[in-house]
Write a structure and sequence with these properties.
This protein is of the alpha+beta class and about 230 residues long. It has a domain of about 90 residues. Helices cover about 55% and strands about 15% of the residues. The strands form 2 sheets. It has a 3-stranded antiparallel sheet, with no helix packed on it. The chain has a two-stranded antiparallel ribbon with strand order 4-5. Helix 3 crosses helix 6, helix 4 packs antiparallel against helix 5 and helix 5 packs across helix 6. The longest helix is centred in the last third of the chain and has 43 residues. The two termini are about 35 Å apart.
Length: about 230
């Protein structure tokens, strides 16, 4: 069991993020949780004072919810850590019938990112990412639940076809229509434009990371099997 401390931009009491890595061994399995080791207190005009309790039995965080294949763009920890933990707590509260709506939790998240000095590019990528998750979860208008993933898939397919036809000129050719498609994401048009343009531009690198990750996973699996065979 260990603890990690990261002090963010707000200098008021309890503004520091103190996390605890909880490891529990159960029936041959290892369960890991990242918990808040000291109450985290922040304020935002949408919800007033937010207190994240230091109790891993009722709440644990996954830090910044970044898929492994995108962590080369935005890491799970950094200056954005405090905002990510507070956002997780607000979503957790909302799922248990309390707190603010998921859309308001996203607004609090965006405000804390800006307050803590996260650079604009990282901030908008993260705000767009939580906007996508909220739309798919039904936190905005019902028609957005199928529309958001459809537009993202459409942008990737268009990107592949554009690379094959436009050659080195594919980025602007695919980015401009993607921005226009993102503008249909009412009421989160800016998040939609950022999300779809990022999807359009980053899919080749993401595909390379996915292929590399799959190769590494396969290599690890083969090595484990060979090691087990040798021990027999």
């Amino acid at each position: 069991m260990g603890a990690t401390q990261a002090t963010m931009g707000d200098t008021r009491p309890h503004a520091a993020v103190v996390l605890e890595h909880v490891v529990v061994h159960r029936h041959g399995r290892i369960d890991e949780h990242i918990a808040v080791a000291r109450d985290l207190v922040v304020w935002h005009h949408l919800c007033g004072v937010v207190r994240v309790p230091a109790d891993h039995r009722c709440f644990s965080t996954d830090l910044a919810s970044v898929p492994w294949f995108w962590r080369w763009v935005v890491g799970r920890v950094g200056v954005h850590l405090r905002a990510a933990v507070v956002h997780d707590w607000l979503i957790h509260q909302g799922g248990h019938g309390g707190g603010v709506s998921r859309a308001d939790a996203d607004r609090v998240f965006a405000g804390l990112l800006q307050r803590d000095g996260v650079d604009p590019v990282t901030r908008w990528l993260m705000v767009a990412a939580v906007g996508v998750a909220t739309a798919i979860a039904g936190g905005h208008r019902p028609w957005m639940r199928p529309w958001v993933p459809f537009t993202m898939v459409a942008v990737v397919v268009a990107g592949v076809l554009t690379v094959l036809s436009a050659g080195p000129w594919w980025p602007p050719v695919v980015a401009v229509p993607a921005a226009g498609l993102g503008a249909t994401w009412h009421p989160i048009r800016r998040e939609g434009m950022v999300a779809l343009v990022a999807t359009a531009l980053l899919w080749p690198a993401t595909l390379a990371v996915l292929i590399t990750g799959a190769a590494l996973s396969a290599t690890r699996c083969i090595i484990r099997r060979v090691s087990r065979a040798d021990r027999r």
